[in-house]
Structures are given as structure tokens and as C-alpha cells.
Write a structure and sequence with these properties.
This protein is of the alpha/beta class. The chain has helices at about 1-10, 20-30, 65-80, 120, 140-145, 175-185, 190-205, 210-229, and strands at about 15-20, 35-40, 60, 90-95, 110-115, 125-130, 150-155, 170. The strands form two sheets. The chain has a six-stranded parallel beta sheet with strand order 5-4-3-6-7-8, sandwiched between helices. A two-stranded parallel ribbon has the order 1-2. Helix 5 (about 140-145) links the parallel strand 6 (about 125-130) and strand 7 (about 150-155).
Length: about 230
């Protein structure tokens, strides 16, 4: 608590703070940060791609050493995967995942490790984001959206991003509903395309590099004008 108070006090010494999401801004304001705060999401380098029909796998992107990733996959394995058909194919893309995550599981799991190009491992799949804790932006959701991938996420996973349930993603917080979302997307061609294209539309309208760069530039210009005044 003492360390938290110190950090908040130090934040109030700046002229302006830039957060990645509106949710981060609210957290700081609710905790006593009273200087101007602007929201400017981070951009990604993933090449935008058109919708591609499903290649038969679900995929998760993220390293083992990031605690929210590990917690989310543990929850998925122990509580969600048991509700899925045993022929479900699931790729985990990211570093340091122990081999036991692929052994003796109720579904077929492949640990892909680090990949040079995410497109090679994820494009044409269903992205799952079973995140239960944490804050900030889930860049994996933006990466999936850029590739027009259908996304299944928790409320926490999509927190701070302008994606809408059943339009640009599917949000499910309970194990059974998360599993049912996977099964439903697996069996519904039209729904996969609807969610994937909806995600890409959100990306193009709100998170494309040129849009975010312009937004950040405006924040810097306003700050410089205030300094001149």
C-alpha cells in the first residue's frame, strides 16, 4: 500500500499521462491521479489480411512466463477442455510452455513455441483468449482482428478494447459457455465469417496503425501547445 501511494504521488508530478485504454485511465483517476490523462492505444505490426476459412484448429498466443497467460491456460485446460470433443486441435504459440501442457490432455494440443511470423501459425484459425486477470491491452486480440480471425474471449480478455459480443468477438466467462462458443464456431461457417469480418472492421476503424498514429500525434501537439501557453 505504501509503494502504491508512492507511485500515485509520483504520477501526479507529470504534465500528462498517456494510457493504452479507457479502463486504465479510469483506474488511475479512481486512485487519485488528478493530472490530465489521455488514451492512446498501442499499434501492432501484424499485416492486415482478409477473412480465411477455418483450417480446423483453435489457437492461443502468449508466453508461459506471463502469469495471466499461464492462469488462463490452466483454467482452459482444467475446466473448458473437458467439455470439448476429444478430436479438438489446439495450438499454443509462445515461449517456455512446459511439455506437460501437451501430455495426457482431453484434447489434441501442440506447443508451437516461438514463431517468426504469427500469420504462419494462426491465420485461418479460431483465436481463444481465456484470460482471467490483468490489465492493459490484449495485443493478441488486435493481432487476431487484423487477420480477420474469429475470437472467443473472456470479459477480462477484451477489457479496454472496443469489441462487441456476437459482432466482433464472442465473450464467455464460464467454462461451459466458453466451450460451447468453440463448438458453435467450429460448426457454423456463417458465424465464423461474421465474427472474423466484424473483428477486422473494428481493427480497420479504430486500431489500424495510421489511425492510432494520428491519435497519438494529436495528443503530443496539444501537450506542446499547453507548454507554449
Amino acid at each position: 500500500e505504501c509503494e502504491k501511494s508512492k507511485e500515485l504521488s509520483e504520477l501526479n508530478m507529470y504534465d500528462k499521462i498517456i494510457t493504452l485504454t479507457d479502463n486504465d485511465k479510469r483506474i488511475l483517476e479512481n486512485n487519485g491521479v488528478n493530472i490530465p490523462i489521455s488514451v492512446s492505444p498501442a499499434a501492432i505490426n501484424t499485416t492486415p489480411l482478409p477473412y480465411k476459412e477455418w483450417l480446423g484448429k483453435i489457437v492461443f498466443v502468449g508466453g508461459y512466463n506471463h502469469i495471466p497467460n499461464r492462469e488462463g491456460i490452466d483454467w482452459f485446460m482444467s475446466q473448458v477442455a473437458t467439455h470439448l470433443p476429444n478430436n479438438t486441435k489446439f495450438d499454443i504459440v509462445g515461449t517456455s510452455w512446459p511439455t506437460h501442457y501437451a501430455e495426457h490432455q482431453p484434447i489434441q494440443i501442440c506447443l508451437r513455441g516461438f514463431v517468426e511470423k504469427l500469420e504462419d501459425a494462426a491465420y485461418g484459425q479460431i483465436m481463444i483468449v481465456p484470460i482471467l486477470t490483468g490489465s492493459g491491452m490484449r495485443m493478441k486480440i488486435l493481432e487476431a482482428a487484423a487477420m480477420s480471425m474469429p475470437i472467443i474471449t473472456t470479459t477480462v480478455g477484451v477489457e479496454g478494447l472496443d469489441f462487441t459480443d456476437n459482432e466482433s468477438c464472442i465473450i464467455a466467462d464460464e467454462p461451459e459457455s466458453f466451450a460451447q462458443a468453440i463448438i458453435k464456431l467450429s460448426n457454423d461457417v456463417a458465424l465464423r465469417k461474421h465474427i472474423g469480418c466484424g473483428a477486422r472492421n473494428v481493427f480497420d476503424q479504430k486500431y489500424a496503425v495510421q489511425i492510432l498514429a494520428k491519435r497519438r500525434e494529436q495528443i503530443y501537439k496539444q501537450l506542446l501547445l499547453c507548454e507554449k501557453d
